[in-house]
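Appendix C. Worked example: Phosphoesterase
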Amino acid sequence: MRMRTGFILFTILATVISTLVKIFYDTKLFKVERVKVDTSKIPKGSSFTILQLSDIHNNVFGYQNEMLIRKVKQLNASIIVITGDLIDRKTSDFSQMFHLVEELVAMNKHVYFVSGNHEWGNPKAEEFFTGLKERKVTMLDNTNKKIQLSDVTFNLAGVADFTTAHDHLPEALNGIDETAYTVLLSHAPDIIGTFHEKPIDLTLCGHTHGGQIRFPIVGSVVARGHSFTGLDKGLYPQQDGKYIYVDSGIGTTGLPFRFLNQSQCSLITVKGSK
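Step 2, the predicted output written as structure tokens:
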């Protein structure tokens, strides 16, 4: 009887410890999710890479984000995009995130940002947006830019947060060359319900955190912003060679941890197939 009780207690203790270790690992040690898509809109043999950072929520990885900065430098992406919720709605001190973007801009002049619901929910939102612009981050809320790399040209468009009704997709796509490859940045994946037949080849989103907590078979426990789309994490092929990608994010909000859903940034490679 004592042996059986001891075994049960050991099993419970081992389960608790392993769960806590997994929570720490998934929350504090981020991974790089590598994604590849093809397109006939850029020459065969050509390619470019996009590093996507989403839903940081003012979280820090290492002293002054040194772990994240070091990884971004190693990946050496063509462009860097931040798809919203860089801060939390309760963030009052922006110094950590300002330091992060300063480091990003120092290593890559192509750093682009679209707003998320937490930026708009922060009472100091305008101060934060001004700070990003002062640090040479390009704001793409409801606008677009033509990106010229060594052998590739493409459109990069962005919409302000859909869930807080700051988005304006027609304005974001105004004047683009519809024959060129087009990437759209949107914090929430719900935006896809508004762009039927729009010339968008790849949409990069965040917001859902992939549920932040996931379980086998069940999937995400709580995933924000996908109630009408069913999209909470990963790459979703669409018609005509188009794609929607939902990054599950690198930070946390609400519950201060992740489980079976590791923190991540994403490196997306777009390769020509023409």
